[in-house]
Write a structure and sequence with these properties.
Blueprint lengths: L2 H41 L1 H11 L4 H28 L2 H21 L3 H29 L5 H27 L4 H6 L2 H12 L5 H6 L3 H12 L4 H13 L14 H16 L2 H14 L5 H25 L5 H24 L7 H17 L2 H11 L6 H29 L2 H22 L8 H9 L8
Helix pairs in contact: 1-5, 1-6, 1-8, 1-10, 2-6, 3-4, 3-5, 3-18, 4-5, 4-8, 5-6, 5-17, 5-18, 6-14, 6-17, 10-11, 12-17, 12-18, 12-19, 13-14, 13-16, 14-16, 15-16, 15-19, 18-19
Bound molecules: beta-D-glucopyranose (BGC).
The site of beta-D-glucopyranose (BGC) has 11 residues, from helix 6, helix 13 and helix 17.
């Protein structure tokens, strides 16, 4: 072959590869709308509840139930999502989820009374529970190894942006008390999510699992360019041949370390207290003496923005420095800021500047979460389980995550009354130290490993740290 021809062939191959990568980014952005809806739907209630409480004359107990109904729905979604993700496929399930998101939004917007509203929030919650892990699952299965962390973290960026957008929407509609519009607006991203998903391919890994190797080959050609297809395909086929795909495999001793890592990180992500801030930031600021409502709201938006910005930083670092260093720095920062926050509440000498110390330490706390524990948990959950039971295994971790989320949401205010504010924050601080030790001793480094290599590691019966 002459030299120019060779050059042309190389150029064409590079172009196909670059096109494939662009297509993966597009598919990731569409799937990440699931993350954005997750964030929007958990954030929107904080502003809406003020007006709902008045219009429906809710008692404090009922108000709490309205706020946490979405968590109950998420738990339902986490339970049913795993089996559906393995049976229907990731993409088809996400399309269904987009419809459920839309239904929940319209339902809440039209609610004539409390019972209806509760039902609509449980429906929206179900969609959140499914999207919370199936979006990362899909992204992780189409991603090239070297940018898998970055791509899956885009979902967490979308999630944190969804929270900020919901605060801003609440703020915009607060003047007119138009709480129904706050819910209704979620229909827009839900429609974009559902329509966008129609145009992206099925996960090649799921296709192989279902016996459609030819379709998987075609998808891989589209997203990797023609060159690398056969190697990746045979790696996936080899891994499928190693498992039966039974529920019982979740309990197999070889998989036990992976189950412990997934469930442990799931619980750690919640019981270190992140959602006390996401759900109650204005309340914490009020505790700290920031009495003006607009300053409290502004401070909450500030916390939300820090959450987005530091998640963007994590996204850039996660494939370079790896998951473990980010996780360890993150938990250390969280522990430290929680101790400072507790101290600020406990020392009367500081009471004059308490408000600002509280704002600063909450910013450091949320920033620390965002640079590690936030994105790393959902990423790792999507990486560490064998293909044939990935949906179901992820669902177990997701159930643990949402259960712990509910527990923290329901106990935070009571804890501040029973233990006092300083001890409550110190408690989360001590738990963060426990989580640091867990991460240090048990969490593997998955950077640069293909999903199939990670699987083979467990099959060989090796310790997580040896990966
Ligand atoms: C957590 C959520 C949390 C959010 C905040 C997610 O990774 O799972 O519980 O509200 O991060 O950014």
């Amino acid at each position: 072959m002459d030299l120019t021809l060779l050059k042309e062939v190389r150029l064409m191959k590079n172009k196909a590869k670059a096109d494939g990568k662009r297509f993966v980014y597009l598919a990731t952005a569409i799937s990440a709308l699931g993350g954005m809806l997750f964030g929007y739907d958990i954030g929107v209630i904080s502003g809406a509840i003020l007006f709902i409480q008045k219009e429906f004359s809710l008692s404090p107990g009922m108000e709490e139930i309205v706020v946490s109904s979405v968590l109950l729905g998420s738990l339902v979604g986490a339970v049913v999502g795993g089996i559906l993700a393995d049976r229907l496929g990731r993409r088809r399930l996400l399309i269904l989820t987009a419809l459920v998101f839309g239904l929940g939004a319209i339902g809440a917007a039209l609610a004539p009374g409390t019972a209806w509203l509760l039902a609509a929030r449980v429906v929206a919650g179900t969609a959140i529970g499914i999207a919370s892990f199936v979006a990362p699952l899909y992204i992780s299965e189409i991603a090239p190894v070297d940018i898998r962390g970055k791509l899956v973290s885009i979902n967490q960026v979308a999630l944190t942006s969804g929270i900020v957008i919901s605060y801003l929407v609440d703020y915009a509609f607060a003047g007119s008390q138009a709480w129904r519009w706050m819910f209704a607006l979620a229909v827009i991203p839900a429609a974009a999510f559902g329509i966008g998903l129609i145009f992206i391919p099925n996960s090649p890994r799921w296709l192989v699992d279902r016996g459609h190797a030819d379709q998987a080959r075609a998808v891989l050609k589209r997203i990797r360019g023609p060159e690398q297809v056969e190697g990746e395909l045979s790696e996936i086929q080899h891994s499928v041949a190693q498992q039966k795909g039974h529920w019982s495999e979740l309990l197999s001793p070889l998989l036990r370390p992976a189950m412990i890592v997934g469930i442990g990180l799931a619980i750690a992500q919640q019981i270190t207290g992140i959602n006390t801030v996401i759900y109650y930031a204005p309340t914490i600021f009020r505790f700290a003496g920031l009495s003006s409502a607009s300053v409290a709201i502004l401070a909450s938006v500030g916390v939300g923005v820090v959450n987005v910005v530091l998640t963007l930083v994590a996204m850039q670092l996660i494939d370079r420095v790896g998951r473990r260093p980010l996780l360890l720095v993150s938990l250390a920062g969280m522990a430290l800021s929680l101790f400072v926050l507790g101290l600020a509440f406990s020392l009367p000498q500081l009471s004059g500047s308490l408000g600002w110390i509280a704002v600063a330490s909450l910013m450091v706390y949320v920033g620390s979460f965002a640079v590690g524990l936030g994105p790393v948990f959902w990423l790792m959950l999507s990486e560490i389980y064998p293909l044939r039971i990935r949906g179901r295994a992820m669902s177990v971790g997701t159930i643990a995550n949402w259960s712990a989320n509910l527990l923290v949401a329901l106990s935070f205010l009571t804890l501040t009354q029973v233990l006092g504010k300083p001890a409550t924050f110190w408690l989360y601080g001590v738990v963060s130290i426990g989580a640091w030790l867990f991460a240090f001793f048990l969490v593997p480094e998955t950077k640069g490993r293909s999903l199939e290599e990670i699987e083979a590691h467990w099959r060989a019966g090796k310790h997580p740290r040896a990966l």
